[in-house]
Amino acid sequence: MGEDIIEFTAYAMESYRRIKKMSGKEVAAFFESNKLYDFVERQYGLLHIEGPEANAIVIDEYVASLMIQ
């Protein structure tokens, strides 16, 4: 994982934490349990050009899709 992706992942986590009113520990567990670190890396090209609210929607849709499978 490149440094730019690592920095963006931290930004995405912090943005998601604020939007969802989660603690740092909660958001870290949420990202880990839903394999969102890998998802953010794979979707970096899309996510880094969107705003925090749009990213939260994409993340929520991805997590919802995991529950359907």
What global shape is seen? globular
Spatial gap, N to C terminus:
27 Å
> Percent of residues in helical segments?
over 70%
What's the mean pLDDT score?
95
What is the total number of structural domains?
1
Our count of helices gives: 5
Question: Tell me about the biggest sheet?
Answer: none
Low-confidence stretches: none
The topology string of helices and strands comes to HHHHH
Strand content: under 5%
Strand element count = 0
Backbone CA Rg: 11 Å
Secondary-structure-based class equals mainly alpha
What does this structure look like?
This protein has helices at residues 3-20, 24-33, 36-42, 44-47, 52-68. The chain contains five helices and no strands. It is mostly helical.
Short key terms for the protein model shown above:
single chain, 69 residues, mainly alpha, 5 helices, 81% helix, globular
Quick structural summary:
With 69 residues, the chain is mainly α. The chain is built from five helices and no strands.
